[in-house]
Amino acid sequence: MNDFSRQAGESGAHSQMRKKSVLELRDVSIYYKEVRAVKNVSFNIRRNRITAIIGPSGCGKSTLLRSLNRMNDFVEGARVEGELVFANEDLYGNDVDPVEVRRRIGMVFQKPNPFPKSIYKNITWGPLNYGYKGSLDELVERSLKQAALWDEVRDRLHDSALNLSGGQQQRLCIARALAMEPEVLLMDEPCSALDPISTAHIEDLMFELKERYTIVIVTHNMQQAARISDYTAFMEMGDLIEFNVTKRIFTRPSVQRTEQYVTGRFG
Amino acid sequence: MFSIFCGAVTWSSVLLLAVLLFQVSVDGFRWLDWQFIDSFPSRFPERAGIKSALVGTIWLIALVALISIPIGVSAALYLEEFAKQGRISRLVEVNIANLAGVPSIVYGILGLAIFVRFLALERSLVSGALTMSLLILPVIIIASREAIKTVPVSIRYAAYSLGATKWQTTWAHVLPSSFPGIMTGVILALSRAIGETAPLVMIGALTFVAFLPEGPMDSFTALPIQIYNWVSRPQQEFHELAAAGIIVLLIVLLLMNSTAIYIRNKTEKRIR
Questions:
Q1: pLDDT digit string (tens) for A249-267?
Q2: What's residue B25's pLDDT?
Q3: Rounded alpha-carbon distances, angstroms, from residue A159 to A162, A163, B172
Q4: Which of A93, A94, A109, B125 reaches 20 to 30 Å from A265, CA-CA?
Q5: Where residue A170 falls among pLDDT bands split at 50, 70, 90?
Q6: Which 3 state secondary structure label does DSSP give B38?
Q7: What is the CATH number of the domain that holds B115?
């Protein structure tokens, strides 16, 4: 563990002032009814870093991601054990309001899912729900700029979001999540439904976003994980096989299974 | 071969409807004028009209819509979005499906016992509207639930992930997206209500009304009852009056349906 905590400190004095971990997973297990989909997973998610979760299909990576902002609450029979510490509180504590959790930990889904409303309303709906008082025009412009979509849609903010291309829709979904000013942004294979150019757009975007946000991304694409993430968690069959600095995982993994996976020998 | 058979069945039903409409028009058309619409019933066919029945029907449908749409849509939303899936919800589901198949006369008896007698609402528009609402509620609930089911779950997740409550999600996304489907169900249900006679006869709607209802507590008559009354008289002229009444009923129905379809298409466009 010492190895990568030293690496995380390299970014300079300003980040050392704050607590480095935003989310701490301690012995997290997730069940669907009787099936244990995630088994005793522990690792920390660092502030202003991109953490990638990789692994073969069905390894529990999406399940783990959804547990980080309590989206698993909507899956019947899902149950979480262990501790997920966010802002000094267990996310699954009794007095925690899941709605509040989702306001502070945003999510982007595998398939772009804009609301069937205008681009403008897609952005403003979330903030208005919790009583946003500032200028809506500024909010829309700021969010779309952060998601690198502003120049493409500035003239048609009141058109339906469904008229956008797939890649644009996904960036709109990112903008929509950013408008909530979340502390953490969860991304569940955000590029899997997109073409390479749109994927490149979104990867560039993530580099910019980590200045301000903490990102956790689940991806099938190992090159993507290697390109963009600072930390990588490799999971298999619900177990966390290895968690380390991305560079380590892809060059000198300490577990043989990890090496076999990242070099494409299975999965 | 099969497609020819299906085509024949389809066209024969259309043909049957056309014949029916033609027969009715031939019989009733010569009676259909403003005097007919603007007169109360009378012993003399040339002075008889359907004013009170038409106004009664409009009152009735408006009240039924007011009562049944909020209750039906709320029930559907509750069952789809809020209720825990389990034995009780399945029981409710099966019961609603069964209620949709109960003969309307049974609802009439129920209305007579509960609204007219027990709640002492008398033979008023309210009693009629409440009875009719009971009759069409299952249809509205089933249709609305189907419409709500078609709203993709990804939209709900998107809303939840933005820190929206269940209610905010339902109100802002689920309901508007399922609105066209709900409207279709409501139209079908109200169209059924407008043509129902049996429950109204049962709760004692009047057949000869020479005044207009002025409020929901007044007694009333409705188009199907007036038509039924005319048909059961011996004179040929009254039979023709009944045909004219049927034409008016059909026009009201078509007007209602086309308005609803117009509203539906408009909202559909807004959503797309």
A1: 999 999 988 988 888 877 6
A2: 83
A3: 8, 7, 18
A4: A109
A5: very high
A6: coil
A7: 1.10.3720.10
User: What does the pLDDT look like over A115-135, one tens digit per residue?
Assistant: 999 999 999 999 999 888 889
- Would you kindly state where each structural domain of chain A is located, as residue ranges? 2-113+183-262
Boundaries of domain holding B186: 40-207+219-271
pLDDT value for B72: 95
Total-model pTM? 0.81
Q: Whole-angstrom Cα distance, residue A167 to residue A199?
A: 8
Q: Is residue B9 part of a domain?
A: no
Residues of B in contact with A180 (CB under 8 A): 162-163
- Cβ contacts (< 8 Å) between B163 and chain A: which residues? 99-104, 126, 129-130, 180
Nearest to A130 among B157, B158, B163 (CB): B163
Residue B16 is assigned to a structural domain of this protein: no
Closest chain B residue by Cα to residue A158: B270
The pair of structure tokens assigned to B260 is 């609803």
Q: In this model, does residue B157 exceed pLDDT 80?
A: yes
Chain A CB within 8 Å of residue B162 CB: yes
Select the residue from B84, B151, B161 to test the A interface by mutation, using most A Cβ atoms within 10 A.
B161
Number of domains in chain B: 1
Nearest alpha carbon to residue B124 among B204, B224, B55 = B204
Q: Where does A2-113+183-262 sit in CATH, by number? A: 3.40.50.300
Classify the phi-psi angles of A21: left when phi > 0, otherwise alpha if psi is within -120 to 50, otherwise beta.
Answer: beta
Q: Please write down the HEC assignment for all residues of chain A.
A: CHHHHHHHHHHCHHHHCCCCEEEEEEEEEEEECCEEEEEEEEEEEECCCEEEEECCCCCCHHHHHHHCCCHHHHCCCEEEEEEEEECCEECCCCCCCHHHHHHHEEEECCCCCCCCCEHHHHHHHHHHHCCCCCCHHHHHHHHHHHCCCHHHHHHHCCCEHHHCCHHHHHHHHHHHHHCCCCCEEEEECCCCCCCHHHHHHHHHHHHHHCCCCEEEEECCCHHHHHHHCCEEEEEECCEEEEEEEHHHHHHCCCCHHHHHHHCCCCC
Q: Does A103 touch chain B (CB under 8 A)?
A: yes
Q: Which residues of chain A lie closer than 8 angstroms to B154, CB-CB?
A: 109, 111, 113
* Facing residue for B157 by CB, picked from A100, A109, A160: A109
Res A220 pLDDT > 90: no
- For B222: left if phi > 0, alpha if psi spans -120 to 50, otherwise beta; the answer is beta
So what's the pLDDT on residue B20?
A: 86
pLDDT score of A2:
42
- Whether residues A71 and B160 touch (CB distance < 8 A) is answered with yes
